[in-house]
Amino acid sequence: MIRIFKNTQELSDAAAQLFVQSAQEAIAEKGSFTVALTGGSSPVALHKLLAASPYAEQVEWQHVFIFWGDERWVPMEDERSNAKMAFDTLLNHVPIPTKQIKPMYDAADSPEAFAAEYEQWIREQVGEEGAFDLIFLGMGDDGHTASLFPGTDVLHEQDKWVAAYYLQPQDMYRITLTAPLINRAKRIAVLTFGEKKTHALHEVIEGERNPEKYPSQLLNPTHGELIFMVDEIAASQLSKPAI
Q1: Does residue 93 carry a pLDDT above 60?
Q2: 48 SS3 class
């Protein structure tokens, strides 16, 4: 499904509504809500909406479990940390128990060892089916999503739920949920806006299938719902009507 919004404010409002709806449904059904957050600049406005009225009061935060879709392997004090951004814009402002927040970093571990531990945490909270209630993702100018970058071996991972690897062009380790795990989610929402995303979005949605070049094409839920939430600028090259 593709939902096109006039601007980023309308997109962020809709994403906040999706978060609240997903949380309320999951908590009513099973007593908890599991969500994986995305990094970068895409979710900043969303986080600020969720941290304030009227959205903040609509979520039973004590039943929310926070994970991440991916992370740069840097300390949480680092400005490049997705977790730092989430704490600054959302998590420090809502009453989620600290033990229910699982950042993707531990200075005491190697990236590979920590990826295995992170997978175990997911299994313990999400269950062996691995179905998150909601996963937020962004999409890069090159069509990557999470830390699934073009031409990387992690695109072919079928067994691990979480993988860590050294991304040579960025000279750093990345840790990411893998495509098979992401695709088990009940809802996947890809937040995409701005002129720089126009070409990649067109290729991902309407271009020839080539996930090696455009990894966001790997998003294909096994049982859940995939929603591209985009603004009019990013969608300007799409020919198919929005749903």
Answers
A1: yes
A2: helix
Alpha carbon distances (Å) from 61 to 18, 91, 118, 193: 15, 10, 21, 28
Per residue in 101-145, pLDDT (tens digit) is 999 999 999 999 999 999 999 999 999 999 999 999 999 999 999
Domains in the chain and their CATH numbers? 2-231 (3.40.50.1360)
Q: What sections of 154-197 are H helices per DSSP?
A: 179-182
Beta-carbon contacts of 43 under 8 Å, excluding residues fewer than 6 positions away, are: 15, 37, 86, 89, 136, 138, 191
User: Burial, 106: exposed, middle or buried (Cβ in 10 Å; 0-12, 13-18, 19+)?
Assistant: middle
Rounded Cα distance, 63 and 224, in Å: 22
Question: In this structure, what are the phi and psi dihedrals at residue 193, rounded to the nearest 5 degrees?
Answer: -155, 155
Alpha-carbon distance of 139 to 191, in angstroms, equals 7
Instruction: Judge if the upstream peptide bond of residue 54 is cis by omega within 30 degrees of 0.
Output: yes
Phi then psi dihedrals of residue 114, to 5 deg: -65, -35
d(CA 235, CA 222): 25
Q: How far apart are alpha carbons 184 and 17 in whole angstroms?
A: 22
Distance in angstroms (rounded) separating the CA atoms of residues 35 and 52:
19
Q: 211-234 pLDDT, tens per residue? A: 999 999 999 999 999 999 999 999
Global pTM?
A: 0.97
194 phi and psi, to 5 degrees? 100, 160
